Amino acid sequence: MRSEIYAALEITKNELRFAVGKYQSNKTLKVLYKFQENGNWLNQENEVIDSKMVSNLLAKAVKEYERNFNKKILKIAVVVPEKDTEIKEAISTLNISNGGPARIVTQQDIIHLNNEAKDVNYSDSRKVVSIKPTRYVIDDTYKKGVAPLGAVAHKIAMYSNVYTIPTKVYNSHLQVVKMAGYDVLNCLIKPYALARQIVNIADLRNKISLVVNWDSEYISLNIFAQETLVRITPINVGLDKMAIEIGNKIFTKPDVVKKYLFKILDFKSNNLSESIIYRKHLTNENKNFELTIGEFKNIFSELISNIMRKLNNIIKHEIIQNTNNDYQIYHTGKITEISGFEELLVSKELIDHQMIYYSDVIGGNDIWTTALCGIMIQEHITNKNSKVITTSTGIEMVEEINPTPSVYNQNPNLGHMAGPQHNHNHQPLLPNHNHTFQHANLNGQFHQPQNFAAISHGHNIRNSKFQ
């Protein structure tokens, strides 16, 4: 019985995250090992501050896994931060017949198209992380959403989105893996990793999916259409800034605010609302300051309401006014672990389209493992469609099935897939379905608060400037 082992790394501002997961045959993902270390790991540009220290911690974690499970790790997948991500559209073409008769489209032809797509990135200061094909055109007429391997054609064209991040950020994160003595299996921008883990595959393909990541530093709204990330919209406030703002109002430190939010308050209940939860003597004013549970909740609720109003305005402008397609909003991040956080969304607009994500991955139910699990899922899906199985423990060849040559119907109305639609900013809103990623080198559950729309769940699945 074949098993697939995937090791994954994510470095955030304040956390080093590492996990190893396993797929056994056709079963779902199971996290075997996880490691988290708090610290100051990234600078303001999201570059790793001390690569040597981080690589030593990574090597230590890997060795602990290897001792416990008697498996050697060779390659590690890396989740990279989305800040300063750029999405560029590319059209790459290839005349495969060279004036002669039509021939079969091969994997090498697709590789050539991918390499040509990278040329839209003309700056050495930026690095291509991944390429997402949205459609293929065969002989200027027939359009297909997946790579046309086995088709007989004179020429082919590939339309794709190319995702780039600053080279310094890319190099600093991958350098950690190399300094620790391992190879890089793949890297993926965090919004894609989150979506792979969070969103039901059918919904990711057929609906507009909006993943709201309530991060410590900022909140980002990531818009997906037919499995393609088309927009990253930031809101420049996160849990850290909220804690600072509340702390200033009640005369205490941000860490104390977080303690109350995560350990004491429960937004599902109004019990003890009049009880004093915090008391402090203000020396400068020579008086005592007191705060009730209800007052603390109101301060935090108002902050969430302001953020939700911003999110609602963005969603109305980007989605509701531009398309009639069904959409779903998924909330994730540390803040969702606050008891009763979902109740803060119940009375807001767009309620029927919102979900709070919680993981039911065996061994990986911590919210910080979400992106790590997502990149493992992506690698698993990539391997399902490949004759070469590449995991964190090595490479395995599978039996190759030769594609049967086929001639695509030249009727442009048969099997036609419409091209990407654009808004006035020339950003693709509804790209065509294609769930294959090209390397540039689901498991989950939703808590459903009252009145929230239910969804079916089951996982199997890989910019407009964001600053």
UniProtKB/TrEMBL annotation:
GO terms (BP aspect): cell division
Domain of life of the source: Bacteria
This protein's UniProt keywords: Cell cycle, Cell division
Alphabetical list of SMART domains matching this protein: FtsA
Domain SHS2: 6-198
Keyword Nucleus attached: no
InterPro entries assigned: ATPase_NBD, SHS2_FtsA
Gene3D superfamilies linked: 3.30.1490.110
Protein name: Cell division protein FtsA
Biological classification of the source: Bacteria, Bacillati, Mycoplasmatota, Mollicutes, Entomoplasmatales
